[in-house]
Amino acid sequence: xxxxxGFDVDFKQAPLLxxxxxxxxxxxxxxxxxxxxxxxxxPDELNLEEGKILLDEIKAMGTPIVVFxxxxxxxxxxxEELIRYGKSIGxxxxxxxxxxxxxxxxxxRSLKESGVDQVAFSIDAPNAADHDSFRQVPGSYDLTLxxxxxxxxxxxxxxxxxxxxxxxxxxxxxxxxxVKSLEVVFWEVFFLVPTGRGTQLSSCTAExxxxxxxxxxxxxxxxxxxxxxxxxQHYRRHxxxxxxxxxxPSSVTHRNPYEVQAKTAHPHAIGRxxxxxxxxxxxxxxxxxxxxxxxxxxSEERGNVRTHSLAHIYREDEFFVNLRNPKLLKGxxxxxEFKTSCGGSRSRAWAVTGDAWAEExxxxxxx
Length: 367
Ligand code: SF4
Fold this sequence. Notes:
alpha/beta, TIM Barrel, nine-stranded mixed β-sheet, 13 helices, 9 strands, 12% strand, globular, binds iron/sulfur cluster
């Protein structure tokens, strides 16, 4: 099911979305990069034909959405052909170009003509100096904003991705204002998972995350775009606690941003889910050489699409199956009344402790 009513996928059978890292090559050197991307295309990347077979498998499994990520997907000259193929078999397709000189209006027009459903750009600071310092390449901020303007001109639904960490958490208000000004359909707010180059950064504290949750929740009541929080599943717990404090909402429109936005948010936004999505639970990651992982941030390789059935790994592999079992959660997540609707970030638990079922390290409960 798609469109205004959102998607209804049985997460035991298929992920809501598959993220495919079409290349790991990128000229940026972002401080948080889980892939530790470098400007070099690996010779063993999945090729065009293998990519089409993968898209067929994803479609057959029942997954409605695929996002082509990187690295920088624009490094692949066959990106548009992959998008066209995915669209021809009925998938919704998004992609996340990097803010580099490869991002020009000709390429944006080409993406538009390929039928891409949504294009996401990453903005992690409200000014060029901080953003470019984070991306470690001067000019990236201006190129990214230019890309966003081209998306608007070409009528491509626009998504902004932002990663919060210790270095930018104080800029939440300015970032909210910037995103509001860009006419987005979707703001995906990530909280740092310390993997790849991101191990050198500091995460927001549990208390800082609560402050950001509060601001996002307040914003979600006022704006027409989807605000999706990634790798902070306890945002859902925050919302439920706020509702308990203030009593029943005066308008059902503000009851739960996830449930409400799954039904009513911008009709062109690529994908909405009223259920919690977590590594291996509604979500699956294929790396640049075809390895199947629960998430890009939980890169435990459970097979390879060249030799294994993606559907079989997602549905039957013990690691994936256990990630969908809230009874296996440990520590305070295991004791928590919200463990089914939240469950904590399994990627962060894995990155910080090495145990994907450990308690979420940055939740204020029981502190
Ligand atoms: S303790 Fe775990 S399950 Fe409970 S709200 Fe916090 S992160 Fe979510």
